Amino acid sequence: MPIPKNLQKEEIGLLSQAFQTFNEATTKLEESYQKLEKRVESLNLELEEKNEELEKNLREKENVKNYLHDILESLPTGVVVIDPTGKITTVNKTAGEIVGLLPGKALGKTFEKIFDLKETPSLPLSQLLSPDSGRQYIEIKFSNQLNAELDLSISSSTMKSPLNGNLEKTLIIQDITEVKRLEEKLERNNRLTAMGEMAAGIAHELRNPLGSIELFTSLLKRDLTEKPQMRQTLDHITNGVKKMDRIISGLLVFTRSPKPNTRRYNLHEILDEVLLFNDLLIRKNEVKLVKNYHCRDPFGAGDADLLNQVFTNFIVNAVQAMPQGGELTLSTIESSESESSSVEGQQNSWNGQLMLTISDTGLGIPAHIKSKIFNPFFTTKDHGTGLGLAIVHSTVKAHNGSIEFESLEGKGTSFTITLPAWQS
Ligand SMILES: Nc1ncnc2c1ncn2[C@@H]1O[C@H](COP(=O)(O)OP(=O)(O)OP(=O)(O)O)[C@@H](O)[C@H]1O
Ligand SMILES: [Mg+2]
To answer: Which domains does the chain have, with CATH numbers?
Structure first.
């Protein structure tokens, strides 16, 4: 059936209107699409910029982290961090070296497990390590995993962990072994000087009355030719007086610090003389002798007679410390370090030195008497005067030399004597 004409027109009008609307909508859609595209483009750009910024930030953070880590690792002091359960969470390189462990091996262990203390510390460890205790400071003696005995100072402070907010303890650890050693030497020197002054006074005061006793005893003895029993009693007095006189003479040697008659001497020759003189004692005690004479130029500047006495004292002490036999080792070496040539606080201008180490495998010196062995009259022997090392100390000091020693109870003792070499 044919469509009426008027209807056809109407429909075409509507259709073209619809078409126009469609066209307009398409144009708008296209415009919106373009706008959207632009927006996406700018958003992409923004995102890229943000990503770059983020990456830069991350790199910077990583750099700062590495930088802080490098600082921590290059610090000459040990740093250890302990969590609230007492476990170690951070150990830097120096702390690892002090403890004698690779830092990784100390992680997760407790402080007490790593630090084998030799003495009870002045502050209980629980207080040092408690996160509530704030800043603390202690000095301890400890034996590390490589069996080295060290003096340490530990300062502790509390900080909040940035990771979990827990209170952690940061320990700053410093090896003060060398400082302590120098302090002890200085203290020994001061103590012996004070003792020397007092002893000199006493010795001087005793000499006169002793002289009188000796004189009157000999007069009495002369008058008692008829009474042999009484003469015998007087002999006991004379012997006692003689012994006292010997002690006083020794004391005076120590106090007067004999002025060395400085000449060129051969260290090896003096040592061999001392060994020859004490050959019987050495052999009687079944002591094996080891000579490690390594000085190519064994010439020193000093008083051969006084040094002979010094070495005799050390060697006799060493042999006496080995009643069941053992090994006596004499080692010599040249050294040119100027640092160790200073005698207990004094500087001197020598730079060449001779170093002699006298080691025994004897009884060793118990830790609690180590600071006393150079004191005059300190002896652990039934018949010792305790003047040997006191005299040795003042003679070596008069030579601008120094003495160091190491001893382990039950293992043995090593004395190292440093003396100025002959400057040709
Ligand atoms: N090599 C050693 N091994 C172990 N202990 C030692 C050694 N050398 C010294 N001592 C200790 O130091 C103390 C003091 O020594 P020092 O030589 O001054 O006196 P002494 O040997 O006891 O007496 P004297 O020297 O008059 O015979 C000794 O009694 C001993 O306890
Ligand atoms: Mg002695």
So the answer is: 78-175 (3.30.450.20), 181-256 (1.10.287.130), 263-420 (3.30.565.10)
